[in-house]
Structure prediction request, 343 residues.
Amino acid sequence: MPGNTIFLGTDSGATTSKIGGIWADGSPISTDLYQTPTPSAEGTLAVVDGWVSGAVRFLERHGLDWEQVGGVGLAIPGPYIRYGVMGSTTNLPKTFENWDFYGEYSAALEAAAGRPIPLVCGNDGNYGAVAEAREVTKDEKGTVIMLAPGSGLGCAYVGVDGAPLEGDTLNGMEASHFAAPVHLLGVRPYPCGCGKTWGCIETYTSIAGLPMLLEDHLPKFPDHPLASSTLESKEKVLQLRDLAQHGDPLACAIFDFQAKALGIHVAMLEMVLDARFVVIGGGLMDPTATTDAFRSNYLEIVRDSCGEYLWTRQRETVKISAAVLGDLSQAIGAALVARQRYS
Ligand SMILES: [Zn+2]
Prediction:
């Protein structure tokens, strides 16, 4: 591989797409965030055009050209019908079902570059974990579990080769839909958006289940303003993160509960995967959204509740830390997967 080879990564989000790039040694070309709109209302070709124009602008800004591009990675949320083809999702218009995003992006990249550009695509959460894994492992060997509580709970596993576990039907590591040990948490099994009613761990650890968590916590805080609020429960729960930053007892109790649930989930995953590193990402670990004290308290509870269930040797070695790349991780991860595949 020539020394000046680069790899690009496109992170396709519901409203904006991001682009990142890495050098041949895997280090990021830039830590600035480059974004383009994802105009899904205008159809698939408009979305793909946005990805390509993002890549073109990235190359221009860094004085790079298509000759140097050894491959492109595309991080895109599923579900997929098969590799490179979109399934049914509420994040995109109905017409995007069966969308051959791999084929369309390959063709558009070839048209822009004047030659075929190797392309690889995969789940955005998995690709984000690839980038975070590279950061956390540095020169040490080890495997990585990444958990990212947000609107749902992102779960990924990155092997010692730096590649994500994708599974034979591309549904690997859908661990957010494990049944939570409700007897340990002292809660009822919440219904989940996935259709399961066994109490998916996602509902106890992410925004998805916050309305139910709030409902179950409020009786212990009868004088709390949210107890008498007439707001919709979706709006109420969106206040909780900010309230917790100011020490609000109800909000803190809810996030402490989520951290405990996440810690137990880490322990269960460690029983299967025995990973040396655990990275916690998502909005709660975003330094622009939460305080240092909030994040360290959350991580401490995760460590405590996890540690109780680990094997002795794991207790000495498992390292739980916060993600460091923020919004850049999925684009950089996509570029890293392209590098793994095509260098
Ligand atoms: Zn579920």
Remarks:
- The first strand starts at residue 6 and ends at 12.
- The pocket of zinc ion is lined by residues 177, 192, 194, 196, 200, 202 (CB under 6 Å).
